[in-house]
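fyi for ur records
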Amino acid sequence: MNHFQQLMQHNRQGKPTGIYAICSAHPLVIEAALEQAKADSTPILIEATANQVNQFGGYTGMTPQDFYQYVVNIAKSVEFPTQDIFLGGDHLGPVCWKNESARSAMEKSAELIKHYIAAGFKKIHLDCSMPCADDTVPLANETIAQRAAELCAVAEHTAQEVFGQSDIVYIIGTEVPPPGGADHQIESIEVTSPDDAKQTLLEHQHAFHARRLYSAWSRVIGLVVQPGVEFDHTSIIDYQPHKAQALKAIIPQVDNIVFEAHSTDYQTPESYQQLIQDHFAILKVGPQLTFALREALFALSNIETYLIEAPFQSNLKAVCEKQMLEQPGHWQPFYQVDSTLQPLYRQFSYSDRIRYYWPNKQINQATERLFTNLENVTIPLPLISQFMPEQYQAIRSGVITNSPRALVKAKIKQVTQSYAQACWKQSA
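which gave:
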């Protein structure tokens, strides 16, 4: 039993411990999260999705090996021990190629799995829930499980071939919110039923055993379920523990499994603690991290207008708006609202579609100019108090330095601190 499995077993035994997954490729987010884990003396889980990182580069332009080295390099820069980093692959399956035939999509999915395993990713979410172009809709649960087992066999073979053994831990399950949150206003959401959860486990167990993946099945540690949390562009559905008690009750009835909860962004600290106590031992956070990043960068942009002459300002907010309007593919399908509301959504939506634009060359240059401008001056404390009041208090208390990058990372750490408190400190 490896460390990850032990942590999940502790949760099953009633100890209020868990782990949160950093689902972001932004360097400042990863740096802040590593600093948080270093301060807490805890391991860290960092995940990449199939859309984000794959054998063709994904939307980040990185292969799994590139992403592995990218994280390691950031870890070395903050002196975080690389042996305490768990890398996870999320939604690994046909999602990127669902418009192709099932055979073609699964062939590319198998290659995707090979790349993730060979690169050193140790936690794999097998997700074959999406129908391909020639599939009957809805896709049968049995087919979903069989395809997951097919990819698991590829992962096990690759691990044996590359490392001489497999210690990969797997996540199964398909009942997840839309990646990054809902694309429409939501009023309520149903918690996964206990019967559906048990059926998913049973279908997958049969499929794994049919391929003689007995050892791999013993390393299936998590089931993705819907605990009843979600967010849309401007609202949040908070966790209501009483609605998840029937689901929670199945944990003693199954072996090795805890729950993995997606789209837990923007919940309250109390909700995170309750989720951990109710066996949602793996919490995923993504858009909230870059939402905090954007809040900090826009605050610094406001500060900049008081300190830097107009011709030399970064104009970060205006540059972001211009690039998003010129390249609307990452936001337009999701923000189907009146045109008068679109500027609000582009900049401030909880779903944070602006996160896809930070690698954009013009936006990246404006961000670096913002940092350079503010690194070359001393930011007056009253301005920080006006636009970043919580970070102002941290400076006054000697917790952080008065520098633009420190201010941004401190804003991001407000998010990671809530998760860390729930996952690591309840039992301290």
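The first helix runs from residue 3 to 12. thats all i got for now
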